[in-house]
Amino acid sequence: MVSARNSIAHLNLGRHFDAIQQATKSIELAAAKTAAIGKSSELSQALRSLGSLPADERRETSKAANTAQSLISAVIKAREVELEGAELDARLQAEHVDLTLPARPRRKGSVHPTMQVMDEMIALFADMGFAVAEGPDIEDDFHNFTALNFPPKHPAREMHDTFFLRPDPETGERKVLRTHTSPVQVRTMMTQKPPIRIIAPGRTFRKDSDATHTPMFHQVEGLVIDRDIHMGHLKWTLETFVARFFEVDGVDARFRPHHFPFTEPSAEMDIRCDRSGGELKLNTGDSWMEILGCGMVHPNVLRNCGIDPDEYQGFAFGMGVDRLAMLKYGIPDLRPMFEADTRWLAHYGFSAFAAPNPASGLS
Ligand code: PHE
User: Fold this and answer.
1) Is 186 a pocket residue for ligand 1 (Cβ < 6 Å)?
2) Residues in the chain, pLDDT under 70
3) What is the DSSP-derived secondary structure letter of residue 134?
4) pTM higher than 0.90 for the full model?
5) Which of 150, 177, 179, 180 has most ligand 1 atoms within 8 Å of CB, for mutation?
C-alpha cells in the first residue's frame, strides 16, 4: 500500500506554486486555487483519506498535508493582493480622464431665446434694485381678477380669452390658467410691506394664436410701491430698461393711452420696428410692436391688498418676454418658439455659458 505520506510527497505541489505565481488575472488565480486546494484537488482528497491510514502515519501525514494547505493558501492570498493592486492600477490607467483637455465642440443643447431674455431682464432689473417674486400658473379668480379690480361677472374676465378649469364640485370655484403675471402683484402686496420693488417672471395663458400670439407665452411683471411714486418714475424705469435691454442709447418708443382695470391711468408701450423682408428690425420702419402694458396701480387694488392709497402709490407693468426676444434676436414668428423643433433651437438658441448676469453684462 502506498503510504499517504508518500502520496503527499508525490503530489508535486510545486506546480501549484508555479501556477499561482504565474496567474496574471483574478480568474487565472481562481483556477489555480481550485486546482491546488479545491474540493476535488489531490490535496483535499489526500486529507480526506487520512482516516484509512495506520495511526502512527496518520499524525505525521496530517501535519504535512495541513502545513502544505496553509502554505498554499497564504501564497494565494499574497498573490490575490498583488493582482488586485495591479488590476486597479490598470483600470485607473485605462479609465483616466484628462480634465485639462478642451471640451468637444459638439453642441448638445442650447438655451431657448425666451429663457435667455428672461435672464437678461432679471439681470437688468436686479441692477435697478428689483427683487424677483413668483406665483402659481394655476390661479384663483380672486388673485387673477377680483383683487385686480375686475368687476364681478364682468365681461372683462373674458377679455383675456381665459382658460378656465372645471369647477370644483363642492365650492363651484373655477380656477384659471393665469392670464397675466399681475396676480403676483396681489400676492406680493398682501404679504410684504412697502416699499416694494419686484419683478415677477413667468408663464401666462390665453386662447389666442397667430404670428404674435401663442396660447402660452411669458411675461415679466413689475411692481413698485412707495411714497410719492408717479408716472415719471414709470416712464424713466421703462425707457431705461428698454434701452439697456437692446444695448442702444435710446429706443423709439411711444406710450399709448389704454385701459386696464388695475391701473389708472394706463398705457401701452410700443416700439418702432420694421417687419419687411421677413426680418424684424428695431428702431426703423413704420410698424409699431406693443411690448408692454403699464400704469399707476389703481387705488382699489391697493385697498384690496391692505395698502392705504393715501399713504402709498405705485406703478406696475407687464411685458411680453417672447416678443422682446423676437425683437432683439430678429425672430419673425412667435409660434415656432414653442414647437420644440430642434433645428429652430439650434439656430436661435444660446450657449449655456452665455448666461447673462449683472457683473459680466448681457450677451
Ligand atoms: N397684465 C397686463 C396684461 O397682461 C399688463 C399690465 C401689467 C398692465 C401691469 C398694467 C400693469 O396685458
Assistant:
1) no
2) 1-7, 105-107, 156, 159-160, 280, 358-363
3) -
4) no
5) 180
